Amino acid sequence: MTSRTVALTFDDGPGPHTAEVLAVLAEADVRATFFVTGAHVQSRPDLVGRIVAEGHVIGNHTFTHPQDVPGSVPRGHFDRLPAQVQAGQIDDTSEQIVAACGAEPRFFRGPGGHHFSTVTAEIVAARGMSVSHWTADTGDWNAPATLSATFQESMLDAARAAAAAGSSGKHQMVLMHDAKASAEGERELSSFRGNTVAVLPRIIALFRAGGYAFADPLGVVR
Ligand SMILES: [Zn+2]
Question: How far is the CA of 181 from the centre of ligand 1 (A)?
Answer without folding.
Answer: 6
